[in-house]
Design brief:
- Its main location: other.
- It is found in: Cell envelope.
- The structure is a single chain.
- It contains nine helices and nine strands.
- It is an alpha+beta fold.
- It folds into two domains: 130 residues, no CATH class; 126 residues, Glutaredoxin, CATH 3.40.30.10.
- Strands 4-3-7-6-5-8-9 form a seven-stranded mixed β-sheet. The chain has a two-stranded antiparallel ribbon with strand order 1-2.
- Helix 2 packs antiparallel against helix 4.
- The radius of gyration is 22 Å and the shape is elongated.
- The chain starts with a strand and ends with a helix.
């Protein structure tokens, strides 16, 4: 079973939605049915969740403003990741506290939010533990552009970023300059660009058209890395620590801000 995604959706995103639903359900269950209290409680929890997500995103963007300024559009790519959990919780609780001063019972709302937060925290830790225990650096042999066999395990011993990509993939093409720059700026981190299903001629043409200079481009013609890691879409970027254990995975286009944050976590 994949621990990176469920179909096209990251598991942490699905866990967040489940936690919001549990908070809503729990709060409504604690509220009395009189005078529409359950509807009001449910509405407050829903609004608190949405505002919490927004607050978490804004706090993260402000904290990493220097990384976002070169590409302001990346600020609104919510699927890119980058959320301050502490800020999101603070916004959600503050809103719920303010909103329940008159119009809705406070206790069911707060207990509902606490239940949702607990589920998210426990579920997140469980997913992280499963991820680290089940996904190690795959023991596969790929080939470079000259046809030389390269065992992926030969890249172990240092933090490693493995990018699964293809030249026909629009998001892959858009994120590649960001990855190329990071490879040049972080020599202490290994980067592997594992192309999925294309041949060397197609890759060379892409690099020439985009005027990109990349090191460690490897060919994965049978998409063995996708199969072994459970990745379901391109691009997918995998972050392994020096022990070869998966620390993080990102499905979709990476912004400079999110990539830098993941690299800081690896070092």
């Amino acid at each position: 079973m994949s621990v990176i995604s469920a179909g096209p959706f990251p598991l942490m995103a699905l866990l967040g939605l489940l936690a919001a639903f549990v908070a809503w359900l729990f709060a409504r269950g604690l509220a009395t049915p009189a005078d529409g209290a359950r509807s009001r409680v449910g509405a407050v929890v829903t609004d608190a969740f949405l505002l919490g997500v927004l607050g978490a995103r804004l706090a993260h963007v402000l904290w990493h403003a220097g990384d976002y300024l070169p590409d302001p559009v990346s600020i609104i790519r919510l699927g890119d990741g980058g959320y301050s959990v502490a800020a999101g919780l603070a916004v959600a609780v503050a809103y719920a506290w303010w909103r329940t001063r008159r119009q809705a019972p406070r206790k069911p709302v707060m207990l509902g939010l606490a239940a949702g937060a607990a589920l998210w925290a426990i579920g997140g830790m469980a997913l992280f533990a499963v991820q680290r225990s089940t996904i190690a650096l795959p023991d596969v042999v790929l080939h470079d552009l000259q046809g030389t066999a390269v065992p992926l395990s030969s890249r172990a011993g240092q933090p490693l970023v493995v990018n699964l990509w293809a030249s026909w993939c629009g998001p892959c093409r858009r994120e590649m300059p960001v990855l190329a720059r990071a490879q040049a700026e972080h020599p202490q981190v290994g980067f592997v660009f594992a192309n999925q299903g294309e041949d060397a001629a197609e890759i060379r043409l892409f690099l020439q058209e985009e005027q990109l200079t990349l090191g460690n481009i490897l060919l994965d013609p049978e998409s063995e890395l996708m199969r072994q890691t459970g990745a379901r879409a391109l691009p997918t970027t995998l972050f392994f620590d020096a022990d070869g254990r998966l620390r993080n995975a990102h499905m979709g286009e990476l912004s400079r801000a999110t990539l830098n944050a993941r690299l800081r976590e690896l070092q």
